[in-house]
Amino acid sequence: MTPTARFIMERYASLLPVTEHTPLVTLGEGGTPLVRSRSIGPELGLEALYFKLEYANPTGSFKDRGMVMAVAKAVEEGATSLLCASTGNTSASAAAYAARHGLRAYVVVPSGRIASGKLAQAVAHGAEIVAIDGSFDDALRIAKQLAERPGVALVNSVNPYRIEGQKTAAFEVVDDLGDAPDLLCIPVGNAGNITAYWRGFVEYQRLERASKRPSMWGFQAAGAAPLVLGHPVEKPETIATAIRIGNPASWEGAITARDDSNGVIEAVTDDEILEAYRRLAATEGVFCEPASAASVAGLLKRARAGASLAGLTAVCVITGHGLKDPDTAMTIEAVRHNVPADLAAVEESLGWR
Ligand code: F0G
After folding, report:
1. Pair 46, 181: CB distance under 8 Å
2. Are 33 and 315 in contact (CB under 8 A)?
3. pLDDT by residue for the chain (353 residues), tens digit each?
4. 238 lines ligand 1 (CB under 6 A)
């Protein structure tokens, strides 16, 4: 095993569209931790609950898995630029891999709706950033048209290589647990990730590396829940800006994952998302961005509604890091300000005197 064998293009090469002409691309993606819950899982009566910490990928979100594959194929096919629409994480990832491979990165984002950490990443990596007065759905429509130029590779999840790379997360879950879990809880925005996980689980069962496939439990934000409503949402709204999407590109893939797995796609409110977000950080040591907490919010909600979880093994996908969105974190008033620089004053402020 080479030192980089945990990186997905090497580890799962035989299950990916990797040929002798495909360059090996890596910033260290994949091999993310599957960490057992100490508080929420036991409380819900689950046999075991795990968090798949996809924020441990190099740019802090799950997007890097699909991006390495898309970028490798773009380089193989002679592209000179990457292009994407994004709610933030895709653009951060595209910008990083573009910088590494000497490609230009063009990103189209909805103005004022990108968490500051994500925008900082795209800026740092030197992407060309256009903020439009519109939604993610508008940005994707425009990006698809821009991508008709020669030499430009569209790296949204409409790019089939993105889904291929992202399915490796399902492989890792099975490899770590020894079999598929009973439940896989996942936030859903543009629906590429739920599509990819499902593909990964189906392929692994076909290869007899898993004896079963999980029920897929997808969760959308209530103000941006087209798959729950059954029709596109014109003006999606949620604090979880990563999944503020009204017309998911992988609509069919999400519905197939739900129906073929005997699963569900349901909505969680912003309050439920924030409750899970705070609980994950305060009781599990897991600091994720609000969209990621939708997976746990949905599990908690279904448990409250009486779903029977006893004896089951569940995995919640934690898609992006809390540091991506410091503004949401700082809405929790926790800092004692203006304390004089002496011991007594600090003790006083802590209530120790
Ligand atoms: N969680 C995070 C942190 C995300 O950034 C996204 C999507 C999702 C969940 C939903 O995944 O779209 O595959 O259903 N972010 C995209 C972006 C849209 O542009 O970064 P999905």
Report:
1. no
2. no
3. 454 467 999 999 999 999 999 999 999 999 999 999 999 999 999 999 999 999 999 999 999 999 999 999 999 999 999 999 999 999 999 999 999 999 999 999 999 999 999 999 999 999 999 999 999 999 999 999 999 999 999 999 999 999 999 999 999 999 999 999 999 999 999 999 999 999 999 999 999 999 999 999 999 999 999 999 999 999 999 999 999 999 999 999 999 999 999 999 999 999 999 999 999 999 999 999 999 999 999 999 999 999 999 999 999 999 999 999 999 999 888 888 999 999 999 999 999 98
4. no
What's the burial of 19, exposed, middle or buried (CB within 10 Å: 0-12/13-18/19+)? exposed
Closest CA to 193 of 254, 149, 246, 135: 254
Nearest CA to ligand 1 atom 3: 320
Q: How far is the CA of 86 from the centre of ligand 1 (A)?
A: 8
Q: Indicate the top mutation candidate among 32, 243, 258, 287 to test ligand 1's pocket, ranked by most ligand atoms within 8 A of CB.
A: 243
pTM of the complete model beyond 0.85 = yes
Q: In 267-297, which positions are buried (b, 16+ CB within 10 angstroms) versus exposed (e)?
A: bbebebbbbbbebbbeebebbbbbbbbbbbb
Residues 6+ apart with CB under 8 A from 96: 27, 58, 59, 64, 121, 125
List, in order, residues 6 or more apart from 322 with CB less than 8 Å away: 55, 277, 281, 287, 288, 289, 329
- What does residue 209 show for φ and ψ, rounded to 5 degrees? -90, -10
Q: Of all protein residues, whose CA lies closest to atom 15 belonging to ligand 1?
A: 242
